[in-house]
Amino acid sequence: MRLPDLLHVFSLALRRLARRLGPLVLCGALAACGGGVAIGFGYSDYDDDHHDRPDNPPPPAGEPGIFLVAGGLCPNCGGSLDGSGSNARFDGPEGIVTAPDGNLYVTEKNSATIRRVSPQGVAVTFAGSAGAIGSLDGAGTGARFNSPTRIEADADGNLYVTDTGNSTIRRISAAGAVTTLAGAAGQCGSADGDARNARFCSPQGIALDRQGNLYVADTLNHTIRRIDRANVVTTIAGTAGSCGSTDGRGAAALFCEPQDIDVDSAGFLYVADTANSTIREISPAGEVRTIAGAAGQCGSADGTLNNARLCRAAGLALDGAGSLFVADTGNGTIRRIDISNKVSTVIGVPGNQNNVLGPLPGGLNAPRGITAFGAGALAVSVQNLVLKVVPR
To answer: What's the pTM value of the predicted model, to 2 decimals?
Structure first.
């Protein structure tokens, strides 16, 4: 391993150790230590309490496998319907986040709604109305969305949604009041500036850092944008309209249809550069580096750095314990990237796009959203289902 790679691995180890031990540890070594709330707040050790459902018996605590949280397993179990466990229905679930109240919140792209799912699998519509597409601020089911795809939560329970079909960023208060935070409905563009005047183009990924800045994977602009606490939008990496895979700093770096983003406690960003089938890292100084996969090479090989292969990966989640998990959509798997940038397959069988619950390896059909969900567990959105997965 070259010296720059060794230094990078050492830096990753320090940052991830800081996430494990808390923000006051290693502050002398990590310049990004500071106040605020780290991403990954509010994760509790939930029990999958589905004792009344023979189709989904509760797993032993910590037992590896794939378990139903909510949604129907039958081939025609689509639509959008509130209910409990296997009686609930989803229509194109995409983004998923665990909020401080312990619930999962899911963006349901096809029905243009935001759903809330309890740890016990009770699904209700939290914002928007199934099938009512539009762009309307308002309370709860009175609001309207257009193909929402990703979602983030802050420490106060506010939600932030990429309203992809409207090319806007929406905010939902803990009480369910929906407002437009940035962009203008139906106006695809790339202008920076005040959030009211800024423009996005089919944004998808969204993440919140410890200082309260939002980061957006602006998918069809091929850029990464920041919305600061003053609601000023800035392009921090990539060039609008330029699809590519170049590493470098700021506008010199190129992405191609990035679909998700996450941020660690030291301010390093991780990007699912979906059309390139790679995972990229952006340092606080704006340096972009490819940490997994090779641009344009869709595959499923485990390995380190550019020896690994992914296929149109579309979801990312940091687990707070040193690992970056990837929803490798084109392979139907969940991959883990450790502190040495080694990629391993932890859930599913590459190329087997079927939902197979129970013991590992199991199977997943085109996983899209992924979030930490209790100690050692993840929640994943797949074909009309919300699942709990526990890697080995």
So the answer is: 0.86
